[in-house]
Structure formats: C-alpha cells, structure tokens
Amino acid sequence: MDSRSVKSIIAGVVGTLVMTAVMVVAPMMGMPKMSPPAMLSGMMGMPIIVGWMMHFMIGIAFALAYAFVFAPIVKIGSLALKGAIYRVAAFIFAQIMMAVMGTMFPMPMMEGSMMMIAVGSLMGHVIFGVVVALLVGKPQLMDDLVKSEN
Prior knowledge:
Distance between the termini: 12 Å
Number of strands: 0
Largest sheet: none
Helix content: over 70%
Low-confidence stretches: none
Number of helices: 6
Mean pLDDT: 85
C-alpha cells in the first residue's frame, strides 16, 4: 500500500475519532444527542457494533476521497479551509442521501430540534474535514506514523 493511502486511512480513523469525541460531548454543551453508529445500525436492523464499524469505514472512505479526488483538484491554500469546504459539500450530499434512504429504510426518531441536529451534524463534518485535511495535507505529520508501522 502506498504512503498516501496509509496516510489517508490513518487520517480517516483520527478524523472519525475526533468527530466522535465532539459528538459525545456535544450534549453537554446544549446540542442534541447524535449517534451516527446508532442511526446506521438502526436503519438496517443490525447490532450497534455494525453501526460503529460502518461509521469508521465511512470515515476512511471519505478521507481517501479527499486525498485522491478532492485535494488534487481543488486549489485552496489553507488546508483547514479546504477540509471544511470538502465536508460542507459532503454534508449537503449526506442530507440528500438521508432523505433518499429514509424512503427505503426505517429512520430512527431524532430527539431535539431538527435545526440544532443539522447544526451539530455540520459542525461534526467540518471538524472531520479539517482534521483529515491537516493530516493528509501535511506529510511531515504523517510520515512519522507511517514509518513507525514499518
């Protein structure tokens, strides 16, 4: 596996961990409780562990898409801004996909204000994008991690 792929996978896991940490503490700051793993597993009638695995696999897939598709095409100097824009676009796409999936699968009930849920979700996506962009876009940060695995 090439270095950029390894960096992207690590960035996807780290970005998902950071986004998940924010998701866990968000209710303590007045945001509604959000659990993508519970939503994913609930939609498919699968155990929560399947939702967690999917949550991380999706994070890795989005990090790979950032590194191999979005980052090479979009010429924005600021990595943080580039990552934030990537995830705002992905957030919009996710909202459309959730509406489509809601017609095919049973959707779990959301607790709290839909506007606050959307704001919290957007915050999580932007945080994920910034983390991924900084890790993928700064090879010197990731090279040490990749070398230590070999």
